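Chapter review: from sequence to fold.
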Amino acid sequence: MNLCESLLRQRFLLAASLLVLLPGLSSCGGGSGGGSNGGGQQPDPVVVDLPIAYIERPIPLDEDGEPVFPDVFEPAAFNPGAKLFIKARATAQAAAVDISSAAFPLEDFPVEDFPDGPLYDVKDISVHPDGQKLIFAMRAPEIEGADEEDQPSWNIWEYQLESKVLGGIISADIVAEAGQDISPRYLTDGRILFASTRQTRSKAILLDDGKPQYIAGIDSDRNEPAYVLHTMKDDGTDIQQITYNQSHDIQPGLLPDGRVFYMRWDRLGNNNLSFYTVNPDGTNSQIYYGHNSLNENPDDDTQTTPRLFNLNTMPDGRIAAILKPSGALLGGDMVVIDGAGFSENNRPVPGATGISAAGQERISILPVNIREGEGEISAHGRFASLYPLYDGTNRLLVSWSQCRLQEPVIERLLPCTEANLAIPDIAEAEPFYGIWIYNIAQQTQQPVVLAKAGVMYTDAVSLEKITPPTYFRSEVDTQLAQEAVGVLHIRSVYDVDGVFGRYGFNNAPANLAAMAAAPASQRPARFLRLIKAVSMPDNDTLDFEGTAFGVSGGVMREILGYAPIEPDGSVKVKVPADVAFTIEVLDANGRRISPLHNNWLQLRPGEVRECNGCHNNQNDVAHGRAGAEAVALNQGAATSGIQFLNTIRFDALGTPITPSMGETMAEFATRSTFCETPGNPASCAPVAQRQPSVDIVFNDEWTDTAVRAKDASFEYRYSALAEDPAQIHAPTAEACVDPDGWSSLCRIIINYETHIQPLWERSRIIDTVERQCIGCHSRNTTDANGNSLVQVPAGQLELTNQPSDINNDHMTAYRELLSADLRQILTDDMAGLTDNIPVCEFVVDEDAIPECAVTLDLDGNPTCEGVVDCPFVQQEVTDELGVVELVLVLDADGNPIPLTRQIGVSPSMSTGGARASARFFNRFANFDAATDTVDHRGWLNNSELKLLSEWLDIRAAYYNNPFDSVD
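The token string follows.
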């Protein structure tokens, strides 16, 4: 069969409209081999009179015959040869029926072309609450000779127990193949939840941003597509993206209250895999459990952090899972996570009644060894999957491999007794996974599908009717939804894990009440910056060089806008919906004072989200999970009917109004305004929900002038970068620069060559003299007669646009500002620069090299004899007696030649942010006539300084749009 024929057949097979009528449950399937209930377990006499389904697969091996182990970070892994079976009863004697192979009929996969049968893969089985349907992920066999992008994708399939009909959920071939779809779950409202690389909404937003549609890669590898959560109707239509991580959101499930739990791979500043929850419509995404305790590094550096696999909700609401190393071992230990009672293993949720004594507990009393490496044997076997029975008996369907040993010489199989374990060089035999009913209370088990050599039976589920989780319906603001925005409400940025924090400004007011009443000049936190992730395209979409990131560490970011922080530290501002974003707290100069926020946030259209405040990663306290955090520091207005201290606000008619009890200043600001003239509506600003601005603008909207004078207004606007806008282009759309022009589509995208380099090159009038930064900060200059001369760049800082000698993909100025360099001086012929600096010189000039001090011997010749650190070049000379001595090397004038050295020059800017770049910014704020040669104050205007500050705070990437980095 040729490639074209294979492709045509594959398209037919993947058509989700395929419906297969399966035979009755009468044929024999897996489970005919031998087995025993070893490992110290006792049989459970109770039979489960319910249908069960499970997967039979060969022990996964790669092309070299080496074992392939499940890796949680590789959700698209394809291990061909799996089949899905169903049994009418959970007993070893019940017949097993293959229900998945009917999707690949013999006429389409003839034996001559497929001697081993169609080698497809199946995983992620889930049961409908009515017990009458199964849903699972299945991938068709590989197409021999086809490129990776032409291979079949993972699709969602459904089997109906009563009608015995098998079919794909998505009926249209082109839609079915548009992404990798895995981990399906039935939602209570009839929709289907699944993880997928489709990124339907994110791709639509890319079009709005003027970029092509592409599937974004994970933070660490842009060619590895990110899985995020989606939902769809049960007929495969109306596919909706509900999470917006920049790495994987995987292994979803349902909690009893109707929320979705899932595992999120956080790659923003860390590498954590932990539980999050989200409503089925994508609102209220928040951390749930294990950000720290699920990511602890083992004490033994030969081991890796264990991860959770095969997640399922227990009847009591806990999450059961298999704990094992990722990428090692086929099975591990059984654990339960009590997320309702704990946010970390040893951190209870305040006020919660936990079921467990700790957040994570083992299910089996007998120890299970999950250590990696040769010689690591688990005497009581290992578990590959588990699924709870909902019949009230506290039992599980488990995939379990009993421990078997293999003699090192004759390779005879032996049981795992203490005597056999003591045999030198004894090794664990090949796994032997069967399906068992496991009684948690009695620690007993009964075989259901007997193990067979070379095969593993796993992912067993029971088809029983259960009470579905509560249907969770979110409330959203329809007006906000029409604007494609949500609203973020932070009660106070001064609330750091429930404790008042001043961001290191020790002279600031000492408590929240004093801060709220203080003048603006005394408050450290003045603005909030909203930062958007930049999704990375794969190489097929855009093949760009890694140098596009510059020195940012592989980071590109966009800015969504700025919002004022109210006097009590509260913020309530619109945020574009359906984008991954994070936040930064800024000072009055627009420079970040908060630590980096290492988690992506999201808001759905119309969602209003509230959080208490900020988090210090060094504090072992819950953050970001409602109900688990410390009580909010900002409780809002103490009572209704009284203005906040030292403030006054008005309604739209200019009449004073007061906050309601519990309102933060940001909440109150959304229903009140400020007026230049009280009682005059024409002087009042509109009453409206705050929206961001691409500029930083401050107006004192709070101070009661009967108490004190208002604080001075200021603004840092892109329109004020230069008198001639053509000299410096604003890094955002022209419409967004308008004072009221912000919309959900506004983006600030700063590219060094387009927006930063022009600052050094533009002409500006300083003390009536036209100047350019590159006039002094260049290696070339012109004398009064027009002659070209070489000079040392002022301050050892060259700001030209020539290719850098560090990386010629970057301009010299970029590298000089951000990379360590070497000090330079003029060569002796004044024709060039050198970084070989003499330790001294005989003619002292302005390069600050000290004068050479020469010691003379009795004959008046230069010598270093008796000099501890000789500053001159010496060479070994052997006299006629064979004695070796060091003598000075002299130049043509008879002077010793000074030694040279290279002297490092620290960069004046830092990717750590604007406040970490004080060496640069201080030049424009201060002048010391005793030490400074040039007074730079006023040379860059406040809007230019704001542009530089925001660029540095988002890591100073060379490009912040990968598509701008290529011609």
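Two observations follow directly from the output. The longest helix spans residues 3-14. Confidence is low (pLDDT under 50) at residues 1-41.
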